[in-house]
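#lab-general

N.A. 3:47 PM
ok so I finally got the sequence cleaned up, no stray characters, all 209 residues accounted for. can someone with queue access submit it? mine expired

B.Y. 3:52 PM
send it over

N.A. 3:53 PM
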Amino acid sequence: MIENREVSNIMIAGVGGQGSILTSQLLTQAALLDGKEVKLAETFGAATRGGSVLTHIRIGQAWAPLMSEDEADALVALEPLEGLRVGVTYLKPGGWVIMNTRPWYPVDVSVGRAVYPPIDEIISGLQRLGGKVLTLDATDLAMQAGDTRATNTVLLGGLFALDAAGISEENLFKAMENRWAGKSAKLVKLNQEAYSLGKTTVLDRLKVQ
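B.Y. 4:20 PM
back already:
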């Protein structure tokens, strides 16, 4: 678990189309509902879909929205290689990584111009940076909840299992309800179920460590 501190620094790394921005918005809105000060900064790659997407979320009295090097307490990696790329710069020694094991192959890999590294090598790289890595097939868990597009909320559940943000689950669920208000109660239920599957999986992993 992450110790209490004045500022909790959380990064979400993925590619366009995975729901990185939605994840950061849910987390930010939940923090505000909790009465916490929060800063959010988003950076995008060259393409909206398939390009790198990185969000900085700073909960507490942070001076700036962007983190410095080696400052992330927790890194949520929706895409493994993006997680490593971001972790090299921002993950603090001893920081947590919650990583989806399903790759999102870039075009160069798909057409055979590049080779995607084995997942074990990506995990080892994060561990050499001093990261405490927890992996889960978040895509499969999202499928169990009813829709692979809920992969991001599965990983959000993993983050909450660590109490990394110091935010109440009740207010995260309220943020989900507000997000899909007037659209579909089914979407709220699906994402809450995906969240619960991710949280339970990570809690079970922590018990055996």
